[in-house]
Amino acid sequence: MQAQGGLMGMLLPLGVFVVIFYFLIIRPQKKRQRKLEEMIASIRPGDQVVTAGGFMGVVTGVKDDSFILEVADGVRVRILKASIQMKKHDSDASVPDASGKPAA
After folding, report:
1. What does the pLDDT read at residue 41?
2. Nearby residues of 85 by Cβ (< 8 Å), 6 or more positions away
3. Which one is predicted more confidently, 91 or 43?
4. Which H or E run contains 13?
5. pTM attached to this predicted model
6. What is the mean pLDDT of the chain?
7. What is the number of other CB atoms lying within 10 angstroms of the CB of residue 20?
8. pLDDT of residue 9
9. Which CATH entry fits the domain spanning 43-104: 2.60.40.10, 3.30.1360.40, 3.30.450.20, 2.30.30.100?
């Protein structure tokens, strides 16, 4: 009888730890991943994006697993969809370009 009570006494803190771990780590990570996947799925030609490497560019084409970005006038690169970090919104259009002047 005491062995069973001792076993429950050991499993209860472990169960509480698993529940806390789920709500503090696993659930928020799944939300972030879902939000990132939705953002990548919503990218269309003409959208401005930032890659994980810090490159900023305009999407000119969409393929199955990648985007074609124009990072400078006439310079196009193919970037994997997984390397897109964020999509810039229209309100971010006033970010200065390389010359320090606001982009038009």
Report:
1. 94
2. 49, 50, 51, 52
3. 43
4. helix 2-21
5. 0.66
6. 85
7. 10
8. 82
9. 2.30.30.100
